[in-house]
Please model this.
Amino acid sequence: MRLIVGLGNYGQEYTFTRHNMGFLVVDRLSEKYDIAFDRDVAACRVAMKDDVILAKPMSYMNTSGGPVKRLLSRLSLPAEDLILVHDDMDMEFGRIKIKWDGGDGGHKGVRSVVEGLGTKDFLRMKVGVGRDPSQPPEIFLLSPFSSWEKERLADILDRAAEAVATILKYGKEKAMSLIN
Model:
C-alpha cells in the first residue's frame, strides 16, 4: 500500500496557484487512473484504489503535518510508504525531481510533514514552479499561473503523474535514476 499526498492549500481561491502544484498532481492521478475522491479521513480528502491511496490535506500548506500523520496512523502505514508531492520554487518551472529524506529546503509544508511525522524518511516528488525575484515568495506562490505557465501545465501534470507511476512500478532508486 502506498500513500500519495499532494500538498496545497485547501480552498477554491487557491486551486490554480503555484503552491497547489501537489494538489494538482494528485488530481491528475485521480483523473488518469479513475480514482475518485469520495471520503474524508483524518482531515484529508481521500481516494483509494487497489494498493494506492491519494490524499489532499484539508488544511493550509504549512499545517499539513498533522493531517498526514493522522492519515498514516489510521491506515497503519509507516512513513516509508508515503510519497509527498509538492511545489519547489528553486527549480525551473515544470522540472520534476524525486528525493528520499533530506531537509525541507525551506518549504514550510514539507517542514510541517517532517515535524508531524518525526522523520525525514519518506519519498518526495518536487515539481518546479520557478521563482520571480521581483515578488516576495509568498505572493508569487499564492498567485495564479501566468498564461505561459497555463499553456504548459497539462503536460507538466501528465509528466508528474507518469513519474509517480514510475515510482510505483520500479521503486524509488530506479525512478530517481530515470526521472532526475
Summary: The chain has six helices and seven strands.
